[in-house]
Every structure is written in structure tokens, then in C-alpha cells.
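User: quick one, fold this
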Amino acid sequence: MKPSLQQHIESTLTYFELFSYPLTSTEIHRFLNFACSISDVEDQLVLMKKNGKVVCSEQGYYSRLHQPRWSVERELGNKRAENLLKLSSRFVRVIKRFPFVEAIAISGSLSKYYADKDADIDYFIITTTNRLWIARTLLHLFKKLTFLRGHQHYYCMNYFIDQSALEIGDKNIYTAIELVTLLPVYNQEAILKLKHQNGWFAEFLPNENLNQDERFLLPMNNGFFKSFLESFINVLWAKRLNQFFMRLTDRKWRAKWKKKSFPMDTYNQALHTSLHVSKNHPDDFQFQVLNALKNNKPLSKPPTWTT
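Assistant:
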């Protein structure tokens, strides 16, 4: 027997309860693994509230659990996120000037309009084909300098793909939500192409319509200096240089992974290193979330790692 709409609503709420994050009816509809209308969801929520299956806070957020503080924290986090997203334009304006950076999106909790008191700004970056590791290396050399001003948390560049690898390898509810909530801040067309290239997300989120928030987009003007640098690098055996930086980074990460005594069998999932993809997620948050859902447990504490 297929799960009912009520069961799907409960599953969606359970997912976000891992983050102590209650949802509006519109958000429940968006993140539901059940094709239906928003009015279907609203009608079902009325019944579920009447039957004690959900709680609706005075702010209008739904959860299976009676946790009034969650709604208060959510609203505070939403306000912090709005301020941080406005501030992010300063940092995106810097990142987009680096050679071979084609598109930038905000990812993580900030892309869902939530920020805690110590929030970072996480970026998903698309680069020119076969130039990912050059772009990444230059950006992370620059990030070293940001520590001098305490701005390193505004430059968390942990996920890179190049234009030849737009299809996301992992296909599950976690990656589907992360994909559709990517918030374009530079080259909206490329970010939208990425989402359409991964149409599999509809298997998990059939109600998603890919509406884009354009409030934080920066204009597409690369400038002479960026074009000059790209042309200059392209005549310096750029493909070989790209491969060299990939191998160098992989050796560094593997050595650090072993030094931290992390299990090597999880390395490739947490720190995906290939010619066209760089994913630096040492806490392997995807695994943590999916494992917590599967076993009905809270999220575990991530390992300590710095880059």
C-alpha cells in the first residue's frame, strides 16, 4: 500500500525536525514526496491538527512536536539570514572575478533562508571545463588571506563542479533538497541549467517548480582583468596545471584524513576529488542526515576539520 498524504507530510516534517526547523504549509508542499496541490496539503493539515498529529505555532509553522522555541528560533534565524544574504554580495563580487568561475550559488542553511549566530556563507561554484582545480586553488590561496581580517567564514567554498559535470552523482532526498534550494547569486542561467540537468529531483520533490529568487543576483560583467588572466593561463599548459593541482590537493587531503584517524573507507564520499568535481564535506553531512532518518536518531556530532 502506498503511503498516504498524511504519512508523506509526517515524513517531511520529520526530515526538518532533524534541524529543529518547523515549516509553513507552502514549504511542506514544496518538500513533499507526494504530487498534490497546496490546497490538498492545507486541508490535510487541518485534519492532522484536529487529530493531534501536528502542532501549528502562533507564527504559523507546523511540526509533529510541541516545540514553541523552534518557531521563535526560526524567525530569528530568518532575520539573520536576510542580513547575511545582503552582505554576501560583497564576497560574491570578489569570487566572481577569479579566473574560470562561471557561476555561483549560495548553499547550505543560508540557501533556505536560515542562519544561526555563527553562520558561514557556503558556496556552490561552477567553473570552466577542465579548469576547476586552477580556479579552486587560486580561490583557496586567497581564502588564506581572509583569515587576517577574520572573514574566512564568508568564503566557505566547499563544492565545485565544472561545466562538463552538471549531473549530481548522489540522488536522494538530501541532495534533491540541497539542489533545488541553491540560491543563484551570479549567472542565474547556469544555475538554472544545473537544476534542469538534474531533473531526477522530481522523483523526490514532485511539487518543486524551480522558481528563482533574484534579489541577490550580481550582474554578468567579467571585466578585462579576468579575461586577460584566463587567456594567459590558457597558454601555460592549463590542462596539465589543472591535473597537477588536483593531485596535489588529493595528496594533502588524504594525508590529513589519515592523521585525523578518520576511516579511509569514507574518504571518497566525504572528499570527492575528480577532474570535474571537488566536494570538501569532511563531516559527510549527507550520510549523517540519511542515517539519522533511516534509524530515527538525532544528527551526530561531525568530526573536526579545517582547510
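User: anything notable?
Assistant: The chain has two domains: 5-66, 87-295.
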